[in-house]
Amino acid sequence: MVKLEGGRFLMGTDYAEGFPADGEGPVREVFVDPFHIDISPVTNARFREFVNATAYRTEAERHGWSFVFRGHIPPEKYEQLVDATVTGVNWWCKVSGADWQYPEGPDSDIQTRDDHPATQISWNDATEYCKWAGKRLPTEAEWEHAARGGLDQKLYPWGDDLTPDGRHLCNIWQGDFPTHDEGEDGYTGPCPPLAFPPNGYGLHNITGNVWEWCADWFHPNYHLTATRSNPVGPPESSGKVMKGGSYLCHKSYCNRYRVAARTANSPDSAATNIGFRCVRDIA
């Protein structure tokens, strides 16, 4: 973990090509207290330590299925593995036996992925891990403050240019979504969190790679009236905030790998592109 001193920063964005319906703006000055934050998402190795110590079973394991990206299912196994697809986004497939140990389904495993982020992790799963580790999930304000790395109102943790000097600095989709990922950044799925340079606060893969859960309930307009000092989401809603985008994000569909972008998912949802990192209060 690294210690962040907190303080005031400009949260949100008025970016013209963003998603106003998500509640990305307006830009507002927010204050957060100092806190510690993981330098990377929780890895499979770290999540395994938790499972071994507690015998915890994730929600995907208890449900017996989870969501897998269609492009990660071998075509010859599609009929055998896929029970259903999500209406309107048929690249998300319901696969029996998919969970954190078998993220793409029963024919996959994580034997060579100890240093990859743990995926197929619901918000509820992440919260249980945090309790065991003596940590917690970040608020959206804490997450965004950390992701900005000390830069003021930049699109990405490193600036406004997605690929400065032609360099890829995060793991996102290149090509035609959802049919062909060219993998120009070196990856077509989750990658080790240290694969790309850190931001100004020493945090790796804070955008791209996997979505990261935040503590807050999601609402597109709640922040318009919320406190500006250590803000949190509404007292209840249907989804929890996720930040950072993932390896499946592309400008044509989900340009949410920007620092201020946001989305939500139900707290029991899991998928091959959802993970988390933790924070800890400063005593």
Global Rg? 18 Å
Largest sheet: 4 strands, mixed
Structural class: alpha+beta
How large is the share of residues in beta strands? Answer: 15-25%
Question: Any idea what the shape is?
Answer: globular
By DSSP, the count of extended strands is 14
| SSE succession | EEEEHHEHEEHHEEEEEEE
Mean pLDDT: 96
Separate helix tally: 5
Which range best describes the helical content: under 10%, 10-25%, 25-40%, 40-55%, 55-70% or over 70%? 10-25%
Strand order of the largest sheet: 12-11-10-13
Span between termini: 15 Å
Low-confidence runs of at least 5 consecutive residues? none
Structure description:
- With 283 residues, the chain is an alpha+beta fold.
- It contains five helices and 14 strands.
- It has helices at 44-54, 59-63, 78-81, 123-133, 140-148, and strands spanning 2-4, 7-11, 28-32, 35-37, 65-69, 82-86, 89-96, 175-176, 180-181, 211-217, 240-243, 263-265, 274-275, 279-281.
- The strands form five sheets. A four-stranded mixed β-sheet has the order 12-11-10-13.
- The protein is globular and about 50 Å long.
- The chain starts with a strand and ends with a strand.
Quick rundown:
The chain is an alpha+beta fold and 283 residues long. The protein has helices at residues 44-54, 59-63, 78-81, 123-133, 140-148; strands spanning 2-4, 7-11, 28-32, 35-37, 65-69, 82-86, 89-96, 175-176, 180-181, 211-217, 240-243, 263-265, 274-275, 279-281.
Topology:
Layout: E1 2-4, E2 7-11, E3 28-32, E4 35-37, H1 44-54, H2 59-63, E5 65-69, H3 78-81, E6 82-86, E7 89-96, H4 123-133, H5 140-148, E8 175-176, E9 180-181, E10 211-217, E11 240-243, E12 263-265, E13 274-275, E14 279-281
Parallel strand pairs: 10-13
Antiparallel strand pairs: 1-4, 2-3, 4-14, 5-7, 6-7, 8-9, 10-11, 11-12
